[in-house]
Amino acid sequence: MQVSSLNEVKIYSLSCGKSLPEVRRRIELIQDFEMPTVCTTIKVSKDGQYILATVVTFEILSDDYSKIVFLHNDRYIEFHSQSGFYYKTRIPKFGRDFSYHYPSCDLYFVGASSEVYRLNLEQGRYLNPLQTDAAENNVCDINSVHGLFATGTIEGRVECWDPRTRNRVGLLDCALNSVTADSEINSLPTISALKFNGALTMAVGTSTGQVLLYDLRSDKPLLVKDHQYGLPIKSVHFQDSLDLILSADSRIIKMWNKNSGKIFTSLEPEHDLNDVCLYPNSGMLLTANETPKMGIYYIPVLGPAPRWCSFLDNLTEELEENPESTVYDDYKFVTKKDLENLGLTHLIGSPFLRAYMHGFFMDIRLYHKVKLMVNPFAYEEYRKDKIRQKIEETRAQRVQLKKLPKVNKELALKLIEEEEEKQKSAWKKKVKSLPNILTDDRFKVMFENPDFQVDEESEEFRLLNPLVSKISEKRKKKLRLLEQQEHREKEEEEEPEGRPSDAESSESSDDEKAWVEEVRKQRRLLQQEEKVKRQERLKEDQQTVLKPQFYEIKAGEEFRSFKDSATKQKLMNKTLEDRLKIEAKNGTLSVSDTTVGSKQLTFTLKRSEQQKKQQEAEKLHQQERKRLRRSAGHLKSRHRRGRSFH
User: Fold this and answer.
1) Are 336 and 297 in a shared domain?
2) pLDDT tens column, 26-79
3) Domain for residue 369, yes or no?
4) Which of 53, 227, 293, 330 is the most exposed place for a label (fewest CB within 10 A)?
5) Would you say which domain of life the source belongs to (predicted)?
6) What is the CA radius of gyration of the chain?
7) Phi and psi angles of residue 265, each rounded to the nearest 5 degrees, phi first
């Protein structure tokens, strides 16, 4: 438990901070009161029995937790009952906030649209939306007294609508009214928070850190309160017993009088704030932070502790009875040896030191003052330590590989060199560094599985990377040096530095002519290697001694000759590349280049002997029919000539 005081208002933090030396026990008001990651919204049910915290916006429709509506960031709306999930639907555009109108059972949703969507829970269907003049709407609220609906827009306006007639009844230009003589505005203020109090009072928070208090009968604000941080206002709450307004941004919670604007007290949590909830009719304050643990604060001046933790009143009264306990805003534990080094042994037994176990508690401010007097160069040492820590942090971000992976060692070495060059350029140009493949789990298999080994001897690699040969030779030399270091078991030594990036860039930046010559050279080498391979295969064929072999003819197949079966068997043993070349020679395969640089293959299927005989028979049949037609034509012509002669 930690105690802070501002304007004689004590604030007890019940969820973080160290306990005072006098308080020997640690107070944990709600056990495991934390989220898995962060919390964005926190609320208390109307009966005060349940605290709900989520990472999305939600609204409690009942007095307890039996009816809850959740607005997700993927446009879905979920309805939950006491037993759990009940129903799920979707709105047309992404939502940002919503409110429930109890008299008509309507849910009003605002978000990335100019329309305010209405969902009637009694009829179970969407009603006609309200068309606003804004491009988008951020927040909304409904007055619990007369049911007036208000929505805050990104243009800095507040539009008020009457749900009975579905007409707009008022418009407030809060962006213009938030600009005062003392405020510095760099952008257009948008509405980030909205809250009604009673029938006529409304508080509006802007994205530039101002809170405007309005009377609905006037378009001019009664009071403008600036947080002086320039951060968006997260939430606004009213405390009626002391006429206070609690406004919070991501850094501070300010409590000020709504009539005069005078600061009552303020609270600065350790982590950034997302939401603030004031427990009803009490002095307890709940916060949703950018950390898994949620904040719990107790301010006795605002009201008593809730009924379920009434012991807090007795505890705080005991602490206030001993005025010395409130002196320790923070403390430092020192031993007797530390006091001798600081020259403070004469303070033993005085109020400045409190005995505890084998040492003493002393005020941290006194400790820092004395230490600065004893060692005036402590700040310089502190500064050097901080610089050293920063350098070590940047070194830790680099890729540290004492042993290169078993697969793709050259690729890993290349990535390490590129990462070093990026870090050098990042120091000069202050460029944000990108994640490295070596530290990414998605590419982990590429350096472990031998199937992903890059074949640098393949034709595709050599043609696509003609200029990598010089750099790869240097990298191979460096790789051999690293392997020697691994065998010598000198992993503590730093890896040998490569050539500076300027030299590599100058060597790799050859002109187009050199690149073309290198490609031609690689092609000639590939042709020579292919010629040598063909000669070796020819020698192997000539040296092969044929042995008698027996073959089994399957049912339904015809035996033509041993030569054909042997040729077929020999062809099946060849690679796809060799078979394609043979097909190209026989004329059954044609290879052509396309306009986009790829290749096109056209196959002609072989015909069997039976198909050839059938084709020849059909050809002879066609010829016989043509011959009969010609002979019949001659007979007809002769017959016509004979009749004309008679």
Assistant:
1) no
2) 566 777 788 888 889 999 999 989 999 988 899 999 999 999 999 998 999 999
3) yes
4) 330
5) Eukaryota
6) 43
7) -165, 175
As a whole number of angstroms, the longest Cα–Cα distance in the chain is: 163
Q: Which residues, given as ranges, of the chain have pLDDT below 50?
A: 17-25, 324-328, 399, 401, 489-508, 510, 645-646
Return the pLDDT at 433: 58
Q: Among 273, 306, 321, where does a domain finish? A: 321
Contact status, residue 96 vs residue 109, Cβ threshold 8 Å: no
In a domain, residue 597? The reply is no
CA pair distance 554, 225, nearest whole angstrom: 97
pLDDT for res 425: 62
54 lies in the same domain as 9: yes
Question: Cα(197)–Cα(215) distance, rounded to whole angstroms?
Answer: 10
In this prediction, residue 504 carries a pLDDT of 42
> How many Cα neighbours within 13 Å face the side chain of 628?
6
Distance of CA 306 to the CA centre of its chain: 39
Q: How many domains does the chain have?
A: 2
Q: What would the two tokens of residue 489 be? A: 């078991």
For residue 337, what are the domain limits? 326-392
Query: What DSSP state is assigned to residue 293?
Result: B
Residue 311 maps to which CATH number? 2.130.10.10
Residue tagged 């590419």 (tokens):
443
If one counts every other C-beta atom within 10 angstroms of the C-beta of residue 44, the result is: 19
